[in-house]
């Protein structure tokens, strides 16, 4: 029964003292500094075991807490772990110490799109390819209920093959944040890229805001400068609100028409992703809509039987979150938690019955029990444990055990000696057959 490493501010040693040795967490060799901001620094690193290059974003907890950005960080992690697209930077895992959070991400060798634009406007055909990939990524996000809200060349990377990768979802929103009026209301974004409806402070459609930002990016790629720009911020905002900008003489008629639809100050008539995909300028060069196998399709969300209506079935995003790197419980608190997960082919009712049987025999009381979650407290021993059951497939259950309390080591010891041997027979062994299907973990 393999243990799952729990990465929290209390169970992982500080890496600051290890940085001179260029290795930390026993996994990565630290390389050069790629960039830095107010809250974070990004380093190139190498996976010691596989040799894979990664980018590690180091975030100061203290600065995040002082800046009131705790929810932003948690949401960024939650969003990025759900996104699997060839033109979106992948988040591999999240690690943490008492003072820092570390995003281990896909390394994009070519750097920011901004660096290319800063050298001057690009070729229209090159820009078309960039824009096609940008829209493919944005459309994918929108189809998954995610709105970036801070699209700009600094947040778009270019790899060694010249392909775009959208990154930095720190200001992203999800459909759950939409109010009863059907709109988002949080004011955010970069001034020169912000949509006019955000300035109106009456609520906005997250998808329409992203389309506006895509229009700014397309203009900048082809012009080499911003459509709305002024040393005085309020003057610039007035230009954005009124949609006052001029096209350079080298813009083709087709490009002008597309940019005009993208930078339409009326969000109701602004072009949509679907309309962009059918635009004549956009389709030049033999554009084919990107298709790929989405992780979400790898698992079927099966319906529970009548006797288990409240049982939770997992989708692919939940499976991804089983990686220890995606456990957010210890990022910003000092609560000591250690745990493990394993599979069982037994019914959830049978597993719960066995747990209660062992607890009764060991004089360990059931503190609470609901919807296939059970919490147990030891009366004469130091045990505090929470067990949660989740349906992986129709025939396999994931049992997640978390031992906690002020003395996790003692609690873990009681669990290991009293419970683990008793339930070992319930653990599913990889390679065995479950209803005719051979499954490995």
Q: How would you describe the overall organization of this protein?
A:
- This protein is of the alpha+beta class and 441 residues long.
- The chain folds into three domains: 92 residues, Phosphorylase Kinase, domain 1 (2-Layer Sandwich), CATH 3.30.200.20; 171 residues, Orthogonal Bundle (Transferase(Phosphotransferase), domain 1); 103 residues, Kinase associated domain 1, KA1 (TATA-Binding Protein).
- It has 13 helices and 17 strands.
- Strands 1-2-3-4-6-5 form a six-stranded antiparallel beta sheet. The protein has a five-stranded antiparallel beta sheet with strand order 11-15-14-13-12.
- Strand 1 and strand 2 form a beta hairpin.
- The longest helix is centred in the first third of the chain and has 20 residues.
- The chain starts with 22 loop residues before the first strand and ends with a strand.
- This is non-specific serine/threonine protein kinase.
- InterPro entries: Kinase-like_dom_sf, NAF/FISL_domain, NAF_dom, Prot_kinase_dom, Protein_kinase_ATP_BS, Ser/Thr_kinase_AS.
- Keywords: ATP-binding, Kinase, Manganese, Nucleotide-binding, Serine/threonine-protein kinase, Transferase.
- GO terms for molecular function: ATP binding; protein serine/threonine kinase activity.
- Belongs to the protein kinase superfamily. CAMK Ser/Thr protein kinase family. SNF1 subfamily.
């Amino acid at each position: 029964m393999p243990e799952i490493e729990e990465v929290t501010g209390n169970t992982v040693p500080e890496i600051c003292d290890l940085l001179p040795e260029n290795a930390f967490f026993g996994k990565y060799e630290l390389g050069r500094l790629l960039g830095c901001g107010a809250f974070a620094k990004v380093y190139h690193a190498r996976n010691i075991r596989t040799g894979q290059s990664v980018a590690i974003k180091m975030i100061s907890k203290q600065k995040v807490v002082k800046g009131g950005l705790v929810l932003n960080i948690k949401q960024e992690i939650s969003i990025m772990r759900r996104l699997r697209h060839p033109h979106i930077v992948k988040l591999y895992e999240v690690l943490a110490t008492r003072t820092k959070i570390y995003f281990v991400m896909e390394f994009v060798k070519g750097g920011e799109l901004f660096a290319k634009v800063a050298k001057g406007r690009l070729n229209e055909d090159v820009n078309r390819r960039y824009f096609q990939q940008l829209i493919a990524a944005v459309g994918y996000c929108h189809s998954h209920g995610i709105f970036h809200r801070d699209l700009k060349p600094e947040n778009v990377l270019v790899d060694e093959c010249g392909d775009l990768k959208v990154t930095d979802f720190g200001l992203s929103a999800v459909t759950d944040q939409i109010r009863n009026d059907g709109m988002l209301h949080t004011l955010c974004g970069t001034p020169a890229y912000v949509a006019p409806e955000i300035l109106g402070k009456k609520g906005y459609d997250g998808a329409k805001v992203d389309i506006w930002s895509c229009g700014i990016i397309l203009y900048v790629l082809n012009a080499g400068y911003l459509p709305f720009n002024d040393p005085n911020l309020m003057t610039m905002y007035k230009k954005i609100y009124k949609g006052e900008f001029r096209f350079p003489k080298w813009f083709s008629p087709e490009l002008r028409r597309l940019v005009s639809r993208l930078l339409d100050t009326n969000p109701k008539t602004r072009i949509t992703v679907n309309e962009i995909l059918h635009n004549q300028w956009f389709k030049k060069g033999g554009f084919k809509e990107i298709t790929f196998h989405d992780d979400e399709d790898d698992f079927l969300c099966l319906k529970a039987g009548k006797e288990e209506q409240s049982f939770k079935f997992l989708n692919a995003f939940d499976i991804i979150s089983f990686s220890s790197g995606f456990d957010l419980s210890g990022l910003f608190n000092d609560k000591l938690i250690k745990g493990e997960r394993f599979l069982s082919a037994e019914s959830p009712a049978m597993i719960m019955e066995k747990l209660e049987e062992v607890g009764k025999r060991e004089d360990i009381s059931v503190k609470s029990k609901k919807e296939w979650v059970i919490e147990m407290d030891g009366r004469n021993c130091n045990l505090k444990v929470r067990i949660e059951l989740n349906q992986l497939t129709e025939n396999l259950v994931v049992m997640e055990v978390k031992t906690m309390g002020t003395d996790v080591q003692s609690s873990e010891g009681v669990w290991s000696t009293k419970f683990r041997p008793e339930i070992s027979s319930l653990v599913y062994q990889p390679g065995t057959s479950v209803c005719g299907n051979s499954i490995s973990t």
